[in-house]
Design brief:
The chain is α+β, with helices and mostly antiparallel strands. About 30% of the residues lie in helices and about 30% in strands. The chain is globular and about 45 Å long.
C-alpha cells in the first residue's frame, strides 16, 4: 500500500458537530477527572471516537497510513499546527483473516485510508472496545520523531478488541494497539476513560499483537512491556 494521507475535520466547521463533540468531550474530561470506573467492555453510552477526541483537544485531526496489507495497518493519527504534523496516536490494526460481508463496504473504505471509528459511525454502526491491556513503553526513534518528543519518552499504550454493533448484531472487527502522545493520553487517563482491562483467555493473542505493534513502532526487544497487570 502506498502512503496515504487523508485529512479529517481540518477545522470542525459545522456548528452542530462542534456543539455535540464539545459536550461529549466535556463529559469525557469529567470522567477522567473523577477517575470513573467502567467495565472491561466499554459502556454502550456514546463516547468520543479517538478521531473526535484528538480534534476536540487539538483543533483538528488527520490520518496518515504508513503501511498496510490485508491483515495489518499502521497509521499516524495526527493534529496539525503551523503546517507541522504531530502524531497523537500511533496505531497498529490487525484484521481477521476473513472480513464479514456485513462490514465489507466499511472495510474497503478503511483499507483505502479511512479512519476506522469515523467510517463505522458514518454507516450507522456503534463502536465498542473490549479493553485487553494498558501498558507503557519508552518512545522508539520512529515514534518519537512522529510525535516530536525525545526518544525514550514514556508513552502510554492501549491494546483492545474493536467490535461494531448495528441492528442487534455484534461483530468483532479488529484488534488494535494505540500508542499515545504524552500530551494527549497517559495510562491513568486510559483507565479513567475506558475502565479496567483484562486479557484473560486471550493472553497469547495479546502478546502477539503487542509484539507486532512494538515492531512496527521500531522498538527493540528490551522495550517490550511486562505482560502482567491490567493497568
Amino acid at each position: 500500500m502506498n502512503v496515504r494521507s487523508i485529512r479529517f475535520a481540518a477545522i470542525l466547521s459545522a456548528a452542530g458537530t462542534l456543539v455535540g463533540i464539545a459536550a461529549l468531550y466535556a463529559a469525557d474530561a469529567a470522567a477522567q477527572g473523577a477517575g470513573a470506573t467502567a467495565s472491561r467492555v466499554e459502556s454502550s453510552n456514546r463516547q468520543l471516537l479517538n478521531s473526535e477526541r484528538i480534534a476536540a483537544r487539538f483543533g483538528n485531526y488527520g490520518i496518515e497510513v504508513l503501511a498496510g496489507d490485508s491483515r495489518e495497518r499502521v497509521s499516524n493519527l495526527y493534529s496539525e499546527a503551523n503546517g507541522e504534523r504531530t502524531c497523537r496516536t500511533f496505531a497498529v490494526v490487525r484484521y481477521p483473516a476473513a472480513i464479514d460481508s456485513a462490514v465489507a463496504a466499511e472495510h474497503d473504505e478503511i483499507v483505502r485510508g479511512g479512519s476506522i471509528g469515523a467510517v463505522f459511525a458514518a454507516h450507522g454502526w456503534q463502536v465498542r472496545k473490549t479493553n485487553l491491556r494498558y501498558f507503557e513503553i519508552d518512545a522508539p526513534a520512529r515514534v518519537a520523531g512522529l510525535m516530536r518528543v525525545a526518544p525514550g519518552t514514556r508513552l502510554a499504550a492501549h491494546a483492545y478488541e474493536l467490535d461494531v454493533v448495528k441492528d442487534g448484531r455484534s461483530l468483532e472487527y479488529a484488534l488494535l494497539v494505540e500508542i499515545h502522545h504524552p500530551d494527549y493520553l497517559k495510562r491513568d487517563d486510559l483507565l479513567a476513560i475506558y475502565g479496567a482491562a483484562d486479557a484473560s483467555g486471550h493472553e497469547a493473542a495479546v502478546e502477539d499483537l503487542v509484539g507486532a505493534a512494538l515492531t512496527a513502532a521500531g522498538a527493540t526487544n528490551d522495550a517490550v512491556p511486562s505482560p502482567t497487570g491490567t493497568r
